[in-house]
Amino acid sequence: MANTPEVTVGPPDDLGWRKVxxxxxxxxxxxxxxxxxxxxxxxxxxxGHTVRWLGGDSLAWPDKTAQRRIIGSLMFIGFxxxxxxxxxxxxxxxxxxxxxxxxxxxxxVLAAALVELIAALATLDYWHKRKIGYSGALVLAGVVxxxxxxxxxxxxxxxxxxxxxxxxxxxxxxGSILAGIELLRSRVWxxxxxxxxxxxxxxxPTLLASINLAYTQLYVxxxxxxxxxxxxxxxxxxxxxxxxxxxxxxHAYVRNNGSIPVYVLGSIYWVHGGPANDITQTRDPRYxxxxxxxxxxxxxxxxxxxEEISQDSVVEIKDPDKLNYEILRTxxxxxxIRRDRMTLPPEYGQSRDSVEALKRNGKxxxxxxxxxxxxxxxxxxxxxxxxxxxxxxQRIRAxxxxxxxxxxIDVAISPPDEKITLDSHDPHYxxxxxxxxxxxxARGSMDQTPFKMLLKKARSAxxxxxxxxxxx
Length: 472
Fold this sequence. Notes:
With 472 residues, this protein is of the alpha+beta class. 39% of the residues lie in helices and 27% in strands. Helix 4 runs antiparallel to helix 5.
């Protein structure tokens, strides 16, 4: 009996493992009577060997294999799916995001995806043998990232349509909360030395760096407004040979004096004739519209900081001697949208169709503006992939509206399948476009010139350019 090995089985741990010692030396861990039998046979001991039980008898086998495997498998799958989504978002944003801050955020998302992959691998150890002391902490870090990503996705979707991404966000949020509760109950930090110091050392620098990044790369560019200047002025004038048509050259321009690149969604310049009055009166019913047109073609052109687009147009005024105008005046309006908030494809500038053609082809919605003459439209993409996911596919539409002696452009951005009931005077709708995409209207300064003086100069120029026939 003195040579009979002494077998001791310790109490079960949180995962159901019981340590086995033979003659005081560690021999392995088991979760069930079957595993204990195999371990003893491997050690050369016969079945029925006397065992000393600590922290529970031969019936204390708390391991729930099916439950453990289901939880571990769900976590593993959840980490892989989250890593795949983060890899997609991070790669797209790091390569194609419109701002430096968003590209930097894309690399941060890639780093989070890497942590999720590591957490998925740690799950295999934590829910199986727990040979790695910090596998539980890695699994907890993965769960925290899932919670942050899913909650952020849902917060960004506030005010948006309910889509399949909403379902995914809710599912992952609930799953991360349940997983976090289970991990906290299991005290996953037990394998770490000084877990409090590690947590503080990781959280504080990350928080400070995130605040600095958010302020310098996200907040500052967001609050910086584009500065688009526009204007028009009269230049030379001339009469045709029969002096029946007065031709006036109008120079219209738009210039980006700010630091934010923009797209020019549309441009308008007007030439009116009427009585002399206060130049600030832009819509006087006594003025007659002589001409209105565009000076930025095609619509949707990019306008970078410091760049200017201009055009000289010749406006014809028939029978000028019969008109009682005191002055001519011209003014511009430019409708722009920030290029760092969206990508506008060339399709926008090539998509113009008249309302008659749209109605003929069954592409006109009766709820669209009634005074529209034509429409531009195209799909757009947002400034980052995460916004493309949360907002879904978007389409921009711009209508040119005419109201007798005045015209304007209305803009709407919405999902392609959403019916638009546009009210350009709705402050909430317009403010949403301003806040989200930086839509802006730049009304140019007005230029006016006395009509009679302009006509006199045109006659004088015509007489001075005529050949002298006195010697004939």
